[in-house]
Amino acid sequence: MTHEIDLYGVFVPDLLVWMAAAFLLSALARRLLAFAGFYRFVWHRALFDAALYVILLGGLVAASQRFV
């Protein structure tokens, strides 16, 4: 079953909402990691950031499936 969210008459897929939430969480995580100096140990920062986003997105979607 496909779930959609109604935003003022426009139906938006759930995945778009989860993608936005994962983006905000990854932006926060990137700031915290940069502040802590973690990126000194990372070989390719852009690749690491992309992987972090995908992991957060997968975690949010998996967690949301539990509550549906």
UniProtKB/TrEMBL annotation:
Keywords carried by this UniProt record: Cell membrane, Membrane, Transmembrane, Transmembrane helix
Listed InterPro entries: DUF1656
Residues annotated as transmembrane: 15-34, 46-64
UniProt protein name: DUF1656 domain-containing protein
Protein source organism: Lichenifustis flavocetrariae
